[in-house]
Amino acid sequence: MFGRDPWGGPLEISNADSATDDDRSRDLDRAALMRQLDETQQSWLLAGPGDQAGKKKKRYVDLGCVVVDRKVFMWTVGTILGLGVFIGFVIMIVKLVPHKRPPPPPPDQYTQALHKALMFFNAQRSGPLPKHNGVSWRGNSCMKDGLSDSTVRRSLVGGFYDAGDAIKFNYPMAWSMTMLSWSVIEYRAKYEAIGELDHIRELIKWGTDYILKTFNSSADTIDRIVAQVGVGDTSKGSSQPNDHYCWMRPEDIDYKRPVTECHSCSDLASEMAAALAAASIVFKNSKTYSDKLVKGAKALYKFGRLQRGRYSPNGSDQAIFYNSTSYWDEFVWGGAWMYFATGNNSYLTVATAPGMAKHAGAYWFGSPNYGVFTWDDKLPGAQVLLSRLRLFLSPGYPYEEILRTFHNQTDNVMCSYLPVFNSFNFTKGGLIQLNHGRPQPLQYAVNAAFLASLYSDYLEAADTPGWYCGPNFYTIEVLRKFARSQLDYILGKNPLKMSYVVGFGNKYPKRPHHRGASIPHNGVKYGCKGGYKWRDTKKANPNILVGAMVAGPDRRDGYKDVRTNYNYTEPTLAANAGLVAALISISDIKTGRFGIDKNTIFSAIPPMFPTPPPPPSAWKP
């Protein structure tokens, strides 16, 4: 039997074929499907129920880039998590179990001396002392300063005593606060590393809080400031009790302490402005207090510029002890600090005025005191400070010419410190004689050491390996060697093998010219003349005036440890401020390399040049 094949062609139908139409249709459908499947799928399809009964279907995880077996994936994830937990557990055990750590390297001698030098300021505090002052033989003193003066009648309690007496001279005190603040601004990281940052900030605030009391700090315009509290002149033979005639502990003072005011004192006002301005940068994170300091500094600098005159007229107590030779250097010095504190260009204009530099002595190359940085002559420090501005910000016209002059003068000053140029004599033991053999040489040496060390750090931060003295090039290490040599001399590397810092080393002065340190703290009150026996005794002071740098040796490296000879044995606030600054600058902190803080001092200064426009946004189709 034949029929027509629907795909074309004959189709023979055999009667013997027992397959039904349904079977044949199923076979055709299966063949059509197999043409579209791969081999694996075909094997699944062709396998009968009996073939798949004993097999378990595998599960897979699609990770996007690869397909993996689900069981393998779960084992891998579990292993990773287990290892993470195990490692974390081990780390936790290592941290929790106590173990010995190697002790930190001992601090160098400069850091050790610095800890002690700061304690001198604790011993010099006036007013109500904090409980943590750390000087057991000191107590509250002069709690009626200012209030007992009929012309002032306001509180002038606080501040620091100047030296071995109980007078508060604002001129050197303000300079001391400026120096301490400058050292913190430059070397904050070092102070923090040795654990002294909070201490020195507290000392600075003790001084600036007092300075704010000495004038109307809430006003924009003032007409007077306090110059000093107490009197020390005994040259007229008077037996009237005062701070030099009497030898008493400050805690026992019962005589009158007059207040001296001034109405035209440009030098004092500008130095006080510098102190407050520099401190405002130290406390810039305490905005309220920093703003208060800036406001006071503005009023003081304005007063100094308008009411011209020296604070120490001839014959005055100020002229006898801390005479100011000029106020032009304070205009430059104070103007620089005011600029850094406010960012106001008007202060920089004053500080860089060519006439100002000329009056301040920037071109007095033949002067025997040229380049000697002191509480009286701030020009060398101001030139270093403004050289910093040129090195790191370079404000350009119209300041560039005078800034370049200051920079060149700073180079010349650094050259003058080197023995090869014979600008200053040196003792056989190596101490530079910046005051030309006159008494009390150490205060000048530490100031020079600070400027040399600081300037070397400026040059290093500016990627400058050294500087020129004429045709000769000297590396920054030469400056650091000079700074170290002066500090080493003071700390004991001298012909007498003694330290000139009380309490440092095995051999140091035992009889500093200091009332509080020389009178026993035994509960007995010694009157004005009652302390004379302690002044005149040859015994060592019963109280150790830790950290005090005495006046120093003579030009032949000789030293007389005699209490009444103040030219050898008296320490001062200004001298110790220079010592602290020099020590922190040259100290070698073993925990890392600490250079200067390049940017903090410029934080108030706006951008020197217009901000460039932002780049155009990306093109979008």
TrEMBL record:
The keyword Membrane applies. Coiled coil: none annotated. Residues 1-23 are annotated as: Disordered. It catalyses: Endohydrolysis of (1->4)-beta-D-glucosidic linkages in cellulose, lichenin and cereal beta-D-glucans. The active site is at 513, 561, 570. One of its GO terms (biological process) is cellulose catabolic process. Residues 110-583 form the Glycoside hydrolase family domain. Pfam families: Glyco_hydro_9. Keywords: Carbohydrate metabolism, Cellulose degradation, Glycosidase, Hydrolase, Membrane, Polysaccharide degradation, Transmembrane, Transmembrane helix. Its EC number is 3.2.1.4. The chain crosses the membrane at residues 72-94. The keyword S-adenosyl-L-methionine does not apply. One of its GO terms (molecular function) is cellulase activity. InterPro entries: 6-hairpin_glycosidase_sf, 6hp_glycosidase-like_sf, Glyco_hydro_9, Glyco_hydro_9_Asp/Glu_AS, Glyco_hydro_9_His_AS. Belongs to the glycosyl hydrolase 9 (cellulase E) family. This is Endoglucanase. It comes from Zea mays. The gene is LOC100285405.
